[in-house]
Amino acid sequence: MAVETTFEELTKTIFEKITPKLEKNKGLKIFAKERAKFEGWLKVELCASLSKDFQTVAPEKDRIDITFDNWAIELKTVNTNYRYDNVENKTRPITRNVQGVIDDIEKLKSRDCTNKATLFIVFPVTEDNEEWKKHLGKITELLKDIKYKEFRFKNDIPGVIYFGLIE
After folding, report:
1. Considering the entire predicted model, what is its pTM?
2. What are phi and psi of 153, to 5 degrees?
3. Exposure winner among 5, 52, 161, 164, fewest CB in 10 A?
């Protein structure tokens, strides 16, 4: 019988493997500057990273972004409209983006999986942004636990990666 991976162990693995990719990728700095989403890239990179530790990694299985062992993870990239240097000023539907994360959490709650989680990257933003905290509260109230790590894209634009455990 395989040893079950805990939320804390998986958080550490994901943050250690994905954060450097977010920080060093030359293409992502363009996406960050333009406030463009990159969920497809995230799915590919997360599958590649997880496949080094888990043999059963599969994208888009049963309409879930990534599954492996006894885990089901939904992914989102949340682009904000908060002003930052070196970022194009564009209107972005932050409320709708947050609702997308909430919808993913609700979808997974109804699924028959042992462990369910949401992974979402928010940019441009820092964890201490008061406007963002209001939106984040709507998400965290639906989660059993949440971890985060701040990072900066290659062009110094701030972002935060969140990993939330769904009950």
Report:
1. 0.95
2. -65, 170
3. 52
